[in-house]
UniProtKB/TrEMBL annotation, chain A:
UniProt cross-references to InterPro entries, sorted A to Z: AAA+_ATPase (IPR003593), ABC_AA/LPS_Transport (IPR051120), ABC_transporter-like_ATP-bd (IPR003439), BCA_ABC_TP_C (IPR032823), P-loop_NTPase (IPR027417)
Family designation: Belongs to the ABC transporter superfamily.
Protein name: ABC transporter
Entry keyword set: Amino-acid transport, ATP-binding, Nucleotide-binding, Transport
Skewed-composition ranges (Basic and acidic residues): 314-324, 474-484
GO annotations of cellular component type: plasma membrane
Matches recorded under Pfam families: ABC_tran, BCA_ABC_TP_C
Organism annotation: Manganibacter manganicus
All copies of domain ABC transporter, residue ranges: 12-269
GO molecular function: ATP binding; ATP hydrolysis activity; L-isoleucine transmembrane transporter activity; L-phenylalanine transmembrane transporter activity; L-valine transmembrane transporter activity
Superkingdom in the source lineage: Bacteria
Disordered, as annotated region: 289-403, 462-484
Automatic annotation (TrEMBL), chain B:
InterPro entries attached to this UniProt entry: ABC_transp_permease (IPR001851), BCAA_transport_permease (IPR052157)
Organism field: Manganibacter manganicus
Name of protein: Branched-chain amino acid ABC transporter permease LivH
UniProt record similarity statement: Belongs to the binding-protein-dependent transport system permease family. LivHM subfamily.
Keyword Transport applies: yes
UniProt lineage: Bacteria, Pseudomonadati, Pseudomonadota, Alphaproteobacteria, Hyphomicrobiales
UniProt GO cellular component terms: plasma membrane
GO annotation (BP), single: D-alanine transmembrane transport
Automatic annotation (TrEMBL), chain C:
Keywords, comma-separated and alphabetical: Cell membrane, Membrane, Transmembrane, Transmembrane helix
NCBIfam families documented for this protein: PRK11301.1
Entry GO MF terms: branched-chain amino acid transmembrane transporter activity
Transmembrane segment boundaries: 23-40, 56-76, 102-121, 133-155, 167-192, 204-222, 227-246, 252-276, 283-302, 346-367, 400-418, 430-463
Protein name in UniProt: Branched-chain amino acid ABC transporter permease
Major subcellular site: membrane
Localization, UniProt: Cell membrane
Membrane topology: Multi-pass membrane protein
Keyword Cell membrane listed: yes
Xref: InterPro entries: ABC_transp_permease (IPR001851), LivHM_N (IPR021807), LivM-like (IPR043428)
GO cellular component, one term: plasma membrane
One Pfam family matching this protein: BPD_transp_2
Length: 484, 300, 531
């Protein structure tokens, strides 16, 4: 424990939390912090793993890896991943609500709130024995419990329905009751799973008021999962964004709102840019392909876990199966990569690309791999704006020394295509090797190659042939079959 | 060693009977989620009907080949027992479908009491013995296996084959599995849920009736209270194998039969039932959903 | 099932054609069901072989009854019930309810007259009408008595409904006194009164109260905590045998043994509960059933300790705190102490009040526990276990306490049972007993003490009354033993009542805490628990 940090700041600290169900990674290496006295929101598109995080924090799942550190207000520290669920509420004082409301529908509203104070009342009744005999402080404790319940009934605006069965309440009231019930356990951290789901705007506003009230007056911090941005942006002090089980953003509402990664995760990116950026993303096949690790700047931080390796190693594979995020799925990552590309410029990455290019791989194994192009130092402002309709940029009028290269050595280029290319002014491997993206597009549209250049990796092949090297078969990891 | 194989065969014979009854329990549980306590007594009714058919045949014909007699007994028992179960389902279980889970349980217990007392009142409380139908015994390497046991094995195997074909390959089986998973959705997709459930009960009863006929043939005597003990054991077998799983029911049945037979051979006959139940308890403690059962995961 | 409604009139037409069709259909089905089992009887002839005896007459009667019943149902009963729900188009009023038309003042007076008249002449009835008709006359008299009583209850129904518990307890307390006095009146002497009351107090009163107590005990496990326990009879047996063994070997007094037996049973409840309480729903049910059977079989086979099927006899009678004994040979026998005539009834009446006190103790503890956090936790457990855990409640210990408490009361009942019988054998602890107790709990309404008591009275009392129906011999012939039909009718009654009222007689739940007013929670909200 860091004794220099102020004791009352960090409340809940997730460190490298991972939750895997068989081959499926629900949460991958997630770390964030929820601070005391704040409202922290956990947002992200559907399937991001938010409720799984909750279930790990509140003990319904045992995480595969990682630590969940909870610091109580007296400085006591708990490791939540080791505690059984009911003790997390009883000892560590972490309460939660559920996505699908779980009330005691056959009990009245008041009774629901009294059940929440069970542990306190059990002690007061001397574990029932004293209470049964009528001695001890049970009567006083019981009256006090009803007072506490009344307080929360008022806060949740449920006083007039206190004696009705909980199952009889309308939906919005049931949600409020669940929150009130969780608050009656006297928690230090309240975890709310989609509290605004199904509420109309007026009710959402009332919910905001209630949550702010809780934050201001009770010393309880809140961690909430939510989709309703009006709630999230209004009341959160700190937002953590998840996508496919990984954290893509972490900060205050303003910065998250404008973070392009978050926007991309929710809204998507342009299709053209998709294939461009897979290496920076850390796409597995490309990493293997180029026999290099993922770009450290865009990968996860060094893990404290002894078992952690690179991202690809944290995912288990069966022999014939590869479990990855599907190509182009992690939109945030793509945006990130694009931004990084823009920032880094030609030289640094060009060097890397030459290195990558020099380790060749057998072509045959990658028959239908998507754009496994090496990193193109794409200068963002491509000044030589060769529009597609004019054709490829580096055309020659005639082959150098009148000896055109045998372009048919490139798999995918047969006699006819060679002829086409020659007609268009492409005679040598190094011409093809120098093609930029725009050139490729031009070639494809002008010469009607229809995506084949990318698919069959003509540029790469051309580069290899241009250097006079022959293809070397891969010797390391076993490759799976053709991947669709 | 021979003794062991002997007991093994005895146990498997008994287990086949339990397995046939257990399938009825497990199918009904799978599709409507209720424990049909009356199923053991349906088995007993099947045995009684087989008995009566046997007596009719004996009275009408001078001599009937055993195979024909058995076949007629089985088919008639299947028909009538199926009728009983169909009526019971329609009258006692269908009105309670979808409600409170304990209500059909109590109704089933009531039905069980009704059935056994009905037979007691109409047929008398005494044992009903019949002359042995099959008496050949074969001796292979010192292990004696009676023709009765072979008949039981053959019939059980054939029935299970037909039955598993029915469940896995036909549209009825598909409809059953759909209703098991999600009744409302199956209904929305055009499956006649009522009919599927009725057919499930009918098939369960038919299998129990065959078990009843074989029981009558094997032991040669039947009495109105014979429904309870095999019923409870078959239910135990179904749970042991994982209730809701048909292969589990068969495996559970064989296991219970083996445990009973081996325990009474090697330890004491008194505590054979205790052994069977204790093994059930122990298995459930370690495998809370039974051997082949699907654990129910509640989504939070 | 729809009924045809004629649009011109406000009433519903009788669908006679449809009724015929349904009756035919029902006849075919019942023929199919009964032709072999009812139509043919297996009997043993002189050579001890089984032969078949046809009973076509009986078969015909049964099928005809079924057909008629179905016809009547479709043609008359269904339209009648539909009509009951239709308001009159002219006046806008609902039709008078069946009960209000059934219980009317003139009928009441007529019944009273018949009853009194027949009582007055009862002595000479045989002479006037002959044995058979006299039997019918007595039957009529009994019916008149029942009608009169029912009318009184109906008239005061609002009052009865509001004060049901208090009235019930009063009735239970007063019952033996009432019986003794009534019978004394009928037989003309106190001794006769005591003698006649034996049967009523013992077979009815004590028997019903034992089941009430058992059901109240099981109510804690099944009704409050939602744990489906099918082996409750095991705890009953443990209590009974503990009492029997300790009583016969060490001769300790009932008042020491009662808590001891309860503790033994609770201890076994914890031992049994610990490994199995993680099982859910139906798996828990079968394991508890298995345990019940295991205990029974151990009792049968462990002859060294339990004396096997022969059971343990010679259990000493209970004495009134050692002061007054009910043993005829003891020096402080009650007759000698109070100088009254000797009668076996004194012991029975004493036992009656003893079991009444024990049952009321169970009820009292249940009511108190429901108000305690542990009782609320039980009910919350029944509603939603995951929500309970998320509120910090240790569900395992909560389930264990429910199990142990229920077991303890079962043990108390068991020790009482042993004291009352003087003899215990494994035959009294079969699965059927567990089933009956569970049925009483469900029929009464889970969690409702009053409903359960009523259900026990109806079910157990009903089957006991069947033993009294000797006058029916007159109707059906001297070979008719209603005894045989007792269990059959019991089973049928169980099915009928469950289909009619799936949630039990009392499906409401009384909340244990209220802010402004205590409003009953409808049964449609309460969950039944998944163990």
């Amino acid at each position: 424990m860091d004794t220099n940090a102020p004791m009352n700041k960090a409340l809940l600290k997730l460190e490298h939390l991972s939750m895997k169900f068989g081959g499926l990674v629900a949460i991958g290496d997630l770390s964030f912090e929820a601070r005391r006295g704040e409202i922290t929101a956990l947002i992200g598109p559907n399937g991001a793993g938010k409720t799984t995080v909750f279930n790990c924090i509140t003990g319904f799942y045992k995480p595969t890896e990682g630590m969940i550190r909870f610091t109580g207000k007296d400085g006591e520290e708990f490791l939540l991943e080791r505690m059984p669920d009911f003790q997390i509420t009883a000892k560590a004082k972490v309460a939660r609500t559920f996505q699908n409301i779980r009330l005691f529908s056959g009990m009245t509203v008041l009774e629901n709130l009294l059940v929440a104070q069970h542990n306190k009342l059990m002690k007061a009744s001397g574990y029932t024995i004293l209470g049964l005999l009528g001695i001890g402080g049970y009567r006083a404790a019981s009256a006090q419990a009803i007072e506490q319940a009344k307080y929360w009934l008022e806060k949740a605006e449920l006083t007039d329905r206190a004696d009705d069965p909980a199952g009889d309440l309308p939906y919005g009231a049931q949600r409020r009751l669940e929150i009130a019930r969780a608050m009656c356990t006297g928690p230090e951290l309240l975890c709310l799973d989609e509290p605004a789901a199904g509420l109309n705007p007026r009710e959402s506003l009332a919910l905001n008021t209630l949550l702010n009230d809780i934050k201001a007056n009770t010393g309880t911090s809140i961690l909430l999962i939510e989709h309703d941005m009006s709630v999230v942006m209004e009341i959160s002090d700190h937002i953590v964004v998840l996508e496919y089980g990984r954290k893509i953003s972490d900060g205050d509402p303003e910065s998250v709102r404008t973070d392009p990664r978050v926007i991309a995760a929710y809204l998507g990116v342009d299709d053209e840019e998709v294939e461009d950026v897979l290496t920076e993303v850390g796409d597995e096949e490309i990493i293997e392909d180029l026999d290099a690790g993922p770009d450290p700047e865009h990968g996860p931080a060094a893990s404290a876990s002894m078992l952690a390796g690179s991202v690809s190693e944290t995912v288990e594979h069966r022999d014939d199966e590869r479990v990855t995020v599907s190509k182009g799925a992690s939109k945030a990552a793509q945006v990130e990569a694009r931004a990084a590309k823009a920032a880094s410029g030609r030289t640094g990455i060009a060097k890397a690309s030459t290195d990558k290019a020099s380790s060749a791989k057998a072509k045959g194994k990658k028959a239908d791999k998507p754009a496994a192009r090496a990193v193109r130092p794409a200068a963002k402002a491509t000044t030589s704006a060769t529009s597609a309709s004019k054709g490829v940029s580096n055309r020659l009028a005639a082959p150098r020394g009148n000896r055109p290269d045998d372009l048919t050595l490139i798999k995918g280029i047969g006699k006819i295509n060679e002829k086409k290319l020659n007609e268009h002014g492409i005679f040598h491997f190094d011409q093809i090797a120098e093609w930029k993206k725009i050139d490729v597009e031009a070639a494809e549209s002008y010469l009607a190659f229809d995506g084949r250049i990318a698919r069959e990796e003509w540029v790469k092949q051309a580069r290899q042939l241009g250097k006079g090297k022959t293809a070397k078969p891969t010797t390391d990891k076993q490759r799976g079959g053709t991947k669709s | 060693m021979q003794y062991f194989i002997q007991q093994l065969i005895n146990g498997l014979t008994l287990g086949s009977l339990y397995g046939l009854i257990a399938i009825g329990y497990t199918m009904v549980y799978g599709i409507v989620g209720m424990i049909n306590f009356a199923h053991g007594d349906i088995f007993m009714v099947g045995a009684f009907i087989a008995l009566i058919v046997f007596l009719i045949l004996a009275a009408l014909f001078y001599s009937v080949p055993v195979v024909v007699a058995l076949l007629v007994m089985m088919i008639v028992a299947m028909l009538f027992t199926a009728l009983y179960n169909w009526v019971i389902e329609k009258v006692a279980y269908r009105p309670l479908r979808g409600s409170f889970r304990l209500a059909p349980l109590i109704t089933a217990i009531g039905m069980s009491i009704t059935l056994s007392n009905f037979v007691q009142v109409t047929q008398g409380p005494r044992n009903k013995p019949i002359p042995p139908m099959i008496s050949e015994v074969y001796n292979i390497y010192g292990v004696s296996i009676s023709l009765k046991q072979i008949v039981i094995f053959v019939v059980t195997a054939v029935l299970l084959a037909i039955f598993s074909y029915l469940v896995n390959k036909t549209s009825l089986g598909r409809a059953q599995r759909a209703c098991e998973q999600d009744q409302k959705m199956a209904a929305l997709l055009g499956i006649d849920v009522d009919r599927t459930i009725s057919i499930t009960f009918i098939i369960g009863a038919a299998l129990a009736a065959v078990a009843g006929t074989l029981f009558l043939m094997y032991y040669g005597v039947v009495v109105f209270s014979d429904g309870f003990v095999p019923g409870v054991k078959a239910f135990t077998a179904a749970v042991l194998g994982g209730i809701g799983s048909i292969p589990g029911a068969v495996i559970g049945g064989l296991l219970i039969g083996l445990i009973e037979s081996l325990w009474s051979a090697y330890f004491s006959i008194d505590y054979k039932d205790v052994a069977a139940f204790s093994i059930l308890a122990i298995v459930l403690i370690f495998l809370p959903s039974g051997i082949l059962g699907r654990p129910e995961v509640e989504k939070v | 099932m729809t009924t045809t409604v004629s649009t011109e009139r406000g009433s519903v037409a009788a669908p006679v054609k449809r009724a015929f069709r349904e009756a035919l259909y029902a006849g075919l089905i019942s023929f199919g069901m009964f032709v072999l089992i009812v139509g043919l009887k297996t009997d043993q002839n002189i050579r001890n072989e089984l032969v078949l005896e046809p009973r076509w007459g009986l078969l015909a009667i049964v099928v005809a009854l079924t057909m008629f019943g179905r016809f009547a149902y479709v043609a008359w009963l269904q339209p009648f019930m539909a009509r009951q729900k239709l308001a009159d188009t002219v006046t806008g009023l609902m039709p008078a309810s069946v009960t209000s038309r059934f219980f009317r003042l003139p009928y009441f007076i007529a019944a009273l007259v018949i009853m009194v008249a027949l009582y007055v002449v009862s002595g000479s009835l045989d002479g006037w009408l002959g044995a058979e008709l006299a039997g019918y006359a007595r039957f009529l008299r009994a019916l008149a008595l029942i009608y009169a009583l029912a009318s009184v209850f109906y008239y005061y129904r609002a009052f009865i409904h509001d004060h049901f518990s208090a009235l019930g307890i009063t009735v239970m307390i007063v019952y033996p006194v009432f019986v003794v006095l009534t019978l004394a009146l009928l037989t003309g002497s106190m001794a006769g009164g005591f003698q006649g009351s034996l049967k009523w107090v013992d077979n009815f009163g004590i028997q019903i109260l034992i089941y009430v107590m058992l059901a109240w005990g099981l109510n804690i496990v099944v009704g409050l905590a939602g744990l489906l326990d099918l082996g409750y009879v095991a705890f009953y047996a443990v209590g009974a045998y503990a009492y029997a063994l300790l009583g016969t070997h060490y001769g300790l007094s009932f008042w020491i043994l009662l808590p001891a037996a309860g503790c033994m049973a609770a201890f076994w409840g914890i031992i049994l509960g610990f490994p199995v309480l993680r099982l859910r729903g139906d798996y828990l049910a079968i394991v508890t059933l298995a345990f019940g059977e295991i205990i029974r079989m151990v009792l049968i086979n462990w002859r060294v300790v339990t004396n096997g099927s022969a059971g343990i006899s010679g259990i000493p009678k209970v004495s009134f705190f050692g002061l007054i004994s009910f043993d005829v040979s003891a020096p402080n026998y009650i007759s000698k102490v109070f100088d009254i005539a000797q009668s076996g009834a004194y012991y029975k009446i004493f036992l009656y009040y003893l079991i009444l006190a024990l049952a009321l103790l169970t009820a009292f503890v249940t009511v108190r526990l429901r108000r305690m956090p542990v009782g609320r936790a039980w009910e919350a457990l029944r509603e939603d276990e995951i929500a309970c855990r998320s509120l910090g409640i240790n569900t395992t210990t909560t389930k264990l306490t429910a199990f142990a408490t229920g077991a303890m009361f079962g043990g108390f009942a068991g020790s009482f049972f042993a004291a009352r019988q003087g003899f215990v054998s494994p035959e009294s602890f079969v699965f059927l007993e567990s089933a009956i107790i569970l049925a009483i709990v469900v029929l009464g309404g889970m969690g409702s003490l009053v409903g359960i008591a009523v259900a026990a009275a109806v079910m157990i009392g009903g089957t006991e009354i069947l033993r009294e129906l000797d006058f029916l011999k007159v109707v059906f012939g001297p070979d008719f033993t209603p005894e045989l039909y007792r269990m059959l009718l019991f089973g049928v009654a169980m099915v009928v009542v469950m289909v009619w009222k799936p949630r039990g007689f009392v499906s409401n739940r009384e909340p244990t805490a209220f802010l402004k007013e205590r409003k009953a929670v409808s049964g449609s909200f309460t969950k039944e628990g998944h163990g």
